[in-house]
Amino acid sequence: MKNRNRATTRHQRRRVIQQKLYVVRNVWGRDEEESILHPFIVHPGKLAKGKLNCSCRMCKYDKHYQIPKSTVVSKLELMQQEVEEYWTEE
Predict the structure, then answer these.
(1) What are the C-alpha distances in Å from 63 to residues 20, 35, 59, 67?
(2) Were both Cys, which of 36, 44, 59, 61 would link to 54 (CB 3.0–4.6 Å)?
(3) Which helix H or strand E contains 80, and what residues bound it?
(4) C-alpha 70 chain-centroid distance
(5) What is the C-alpha to C-alpha distance for residues 90 and 79, in angstroms, rounded to an integer?
(6) 86, 8, 13, 75: which is closest to 44 by C-alpha?
């Protein structure tokens, strides 16, 4: 395991918070001008834990556009090769 110092941990946490805060502000349409602020905007540190569970087309492109994931594609190719090997043996 690599040696990681506190600065690396802080950097990664800050990066994740900024990425999720962008989703809250721009995708969900929440901003500081609203009368009732979203809890994530008031306390952005809460965004470091858990998921946002956003299911928009930007976040879940493979689901909406039926694009298979790379792991699924590689498994299908491997299965296809096994089937071809089986039929060429006989």
Answers:
(1) 20, 35, 9, 7
(2) 59
(3) helix 70-89
(4) 15
(5) 18
(6) 13
> What is the CB neighbour count within 10 angstroms for residue 23?
17
Q: Which residue has the tokens 């721009």?
A: 26
pLDDT of 3 higher than 90? no
Q: What tokens were used for 69? A: 């994931």
Per-residue pLDDT, 74: 94
Judge whether 46 and 16 are in contact, CB under 8 Å: no
Return the structure tokens found at 63. Answer: 């689901």
Residue 89 or residue 2, greater confidence: 89
- pLDDT, tens digit (0-9, with 9 covering 90-100), for 34-89: 667 777 777 888 888 777 766 777 777 777 888 888 888 999 999 999 999 999 98
Q: Please check whether residue 17 is in contact with residue 47, taking contact to mean a CB–CB distance below 8 angstroms.
A: yes
